[in-house]
Specification:
DNA-binding; homodimer; 6-stranded mixed beta sheet; 12 helices
Chain lengths: 332, 332
DNA sequence: CTTGACAATCGTAACGTTACGATTGCATCC
DNA sequence: GGATGCAATCGTAACGTTACGATTGTCAAG
């Protein structure tokens, strides 16, 4: 591992001049800059991360707090394109992305505090926003740059990137109504999180417009595994008045529901209609007629990094808020 | 952000003593240790990562090099449990895990060299091993601790965790033969990688045992998206003598194949039989009779971290090599 | 010839941590 | 009472980097 000192020694220059030359400092003679860069290139000099971080306070690291809904089960395929989008964008922006996994046992606030105290990151990507999320105030107060994947219902302005879950659920419900459905079941993910609240809101708006009262028993919470989705939908199918429409939370919810349906020899398209949100295009490869909202989650990942990057560069600038719309494909 | 100096000032001790006290140094008076720890606790002291790293050379960071087969498409669901297993285990071991994404444009060797030169990681997790993989020698020569996800055909001993792809493909092929299949198609992932070579080897062994000559046109390379798998299988189904058995590379390959089958009104179970490897249990929720090899990929991720951790702790110790077997479920 | 301006380079200190050797105080021993 | 040993603590230097102010040399203007 080479350092500035070695380059300086080789050229009989001071460490200072070498340091400046490598960042094209105007005080350094152009010819010297060229010589320094030539040697740096030749010996494969790469700045030492920790020396830089210690001196400047900039760590060139972003941390994504990654919540796992369960310890063992697959919980949302969305995470795959999200991670791919984030890691690739972070790398291209010159940051390394550290992933801090949390289980349901972990306190979300404590996870953030830990990152704050450790001081080993320039910025945080937080997800799974809840109503009145206390992490926002905490991070703003401490001046730690961050971006949230998801909005919340605070007065405070803060940077976020979100999916328009309200619109997606509204449109999904409307599409099901267009098919003639009136008893429409809705899958929600983690109870209490903002994404689910928005879905519920969009669903409620569509139902209200159509004058259909909401039947709470049609709303499924905690549908973040194929198993839970299948069991929930299976119970409903046994009712005397089963739902005729279903809005799934995501690909896994869809797979679970299709599984329950298939076991009874049913398929979506005639008696029952299904729509879902999809971030992997996986639903398009299933042998079933389903309406799909595609959302560009890799794009969300890239945007999160981009917003966080500008936030780190200018922590007191205006906050960016970005909303990704879903694109509906009726799947006929 | 508090540091040792502040704690030292508060207790009128030297920084040295505080540093030692926090790691229970035997030279420090027990009562002093208690006082120091009490203050550290109260002010929320967390050691500064970069100061520590600069001084000791230990970064407490592991880096996983994460290859993306394509820039845009979902390429293997295996990555999700792998990342979850790795990140969680790394965190529990006191390391942070950095993910370095690479695209097909990136040179794998250069990616490793970059990590070596940057010196900002204690150890590397490399994947997608190829025949005679030059990264192994490079890392061994430079003394950088690492662990590979996958074996390769080198004489050199090096630590790895792998899935027994040879056995899985062998057993998959045998199972298909038990169903009466003789024309058996095989899906392989990245051309040239070792996992695919092992699959091919296991397939070849089973075919040889059964005395069936290998038809190269039944072997599909580059089947790492649902799209490519569907297109490939669709072409085969149009033949006058289509395959009667198919061994899929993974869940996505399976989805693609089922899609192609479904469009022709066919389903696995009678004319054609399908087996696949699965790391998400997703195939069990599909409305199709397929044999499945389950592999505990989250366990692989945890094991990778565990092996790397012991490698970092003792870089010249014996190399651990771990093989994960698949568990077959005929899916009747 | 002196002064001033300017370009180019240098030296020192500091970020927070740990390793090493030095120092202090105190009891014990001959 | 001075030497010895030991426990507890301290001071300094170093890891690699950057920021700041200082220093050198050159050249033109007065």
């Amino acid at each position: 591992m080479t350092n500035l000192k070695q380059i300086a020694a080789e050229l009989s220059l001071s460490v200072t001049t070498v340091s400046r030359a490598l960042k094209d400092g105007p005080e350094v003679h152009p010819a010297t800059i060229a010589r320094v860069k030539e040697v740096a290139q030749r010996v494969g000099y790469v700045p030492n991360h920790h020396g830089f971080a210690l001196k400047t306070g900039r760590t060139l690291t972003m941390t994504a707090i990654y919540p796992m809904e369960t310890k063992d089960h697959l919980s949302d395929l969305l995470k795959l394109p999200l991670i791919e989008g984030m890691t690739l964008a972070a790398r291209q922006a010159g940051y390394s992305l550290s992933i801090y996994s949390t289980t349901p046992d972990d306190d979300p606030i404590e996870s953030v505090q830990r990152q704050l105290q450790a001081g080993s990151t320039d910025g945080l990507i937080i997800t799974r926003m809840v109503s009145g999320d206390p992490r926002v105030k905490l991070l703003l107060d401490r001046g730690m740059p961050f971006v949230a994947f998801g909005r919340t219902d605070l007065d405070t302005a803060y940077p976020y990137v979100d999916i328009d879950n309200e619109q997606i659920a509204y449109e999904a419900t409307r599409r099901l109504m267009d098919k003639g459905c009136r008893r429409i079941a809705l899958q929600l993910l983690v109870p209490g999180d903002q994404a689910s609240a928005m879905r519920l809101s969009g669903y409620g708006r569509a139902m209200a417009e159509a004058g259909i009262p909401i039947d709470q028993s049609l709303i499924g919470h905690g549908m973040f595994t194929m198993e839970s989705s299948a069991a929930w939908f299976d119970r409903m199918l046994a009712w005397s008045d089963p739902p005729t429409g279903l809005a799934c939370a995501n690909e896994l919810g869809l797979l679970g529901a299709l599984h329950a349906l298939g076991r009874r020899g049913l398929a979506p398209g005639s008696d029952i209609h299904i729509v879902t949100r999809d971030s992997t295009r996986l639903s398009r490869f299933l042998p079933a007629k389903i309406g799909v909202h595609f959302v560009d989650i890799a794009g969300v990942g890239r945007k999160l990094v981009e917003v966080l990057e500008s936030r780190i560069a200018n922590p007191i600038g205006p906050v960016a808020t970005v909303l990704f719309k879903g694109e509906f494909d009726p799947g006929e």
